[in-house]
């Protein structure tokens, strides 16, 4: 379903969704996965600090099971069918040891660029903050200078009818956003 935008925007933005119905038989090739990670690598960051770190887990490997175990039960119920789960963690201090106050913003930019590349390659992405960060750091054996930020499920969209209950309801809900007049505080062109 295409978003109803007030002005035309790039097709990837207009058609991007975060579905939960994923086809468990479709894999992401090495070439596609590397391109997705490259898109994140080339995101802008404050002072070119690049605080993001990616923990990549493919369905069927041990890291996938560990990553899946950190998700909230609702997210586990559908994310188990994704081809890849990427936990994005951040280095919260700069190279000089000072606090990196903008690490979440920078990680968001990296994930955004990965999401656009994911959709460009015919896959879908669903970003999740519903996971246990402490458990994630433990099971993924993260260095102590990293903190988990988000988990991104990647896969091929499947039929929404394969979901049940709240997941099915969310899958079939219309795609809506607040109007620009609600989010632009000053300077909205007429």
TrEMBL record:
Query: Residue ranges of the Nitroreductase domain?
Result: 13-156
GO MF annotation, one: oxidoreductase activity
CDD domains the UniProt entry points to: TdsD-like
Alphabetically list the UniProt keywords. Oxidoreductase
Instruction: Return the InterPro entries for the record.
Output: Nitroreductase, Nitroreductase-like
Q: Which family does it belong to?
A: Belongs to the nitroreductase family.
By what name is this protein known?
A: Unannotated protein
């Amino acid at each position: 379903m295409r978003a109803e935008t007030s002005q035309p925007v790039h097709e990837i933005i207009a058609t991007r969704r975060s579905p939960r119905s994923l086809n468990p038989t479709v894999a992401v090739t090495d070439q596609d996965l590397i391109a997705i990670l490259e898109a994140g690598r080339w995101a802008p960051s404050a002072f070119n600090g690049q605080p993001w770190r990616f923990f990549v887990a493919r369905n069927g490997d041990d890291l996938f099971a560990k990553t899946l175990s950190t998700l909230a039960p609702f997210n586990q119920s559908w994310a188990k069918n994704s081809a890849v789960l990427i936990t994005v963690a951040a280095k919260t201090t700069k190279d000089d040891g000072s606090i990196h106050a903008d690490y979440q913003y920078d990680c968001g930019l990296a994930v955004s660029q990965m999401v656009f590349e994911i959709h460009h390659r015919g896959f879908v992405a669903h970003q999740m903050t519903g996971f246990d960060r402490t458990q994630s750091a433990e099971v993924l054996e993260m260095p102590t200078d990293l903190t988990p930020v988000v988990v991104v499920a990647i896969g091929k969209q499947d039929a929404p009818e394969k979901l049940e209950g709240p997941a099915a309801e969310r899958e079939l809900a219309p795609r809506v956003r607040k109007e620009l007049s609600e989010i632009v505080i000053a300077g909205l062109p007429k």
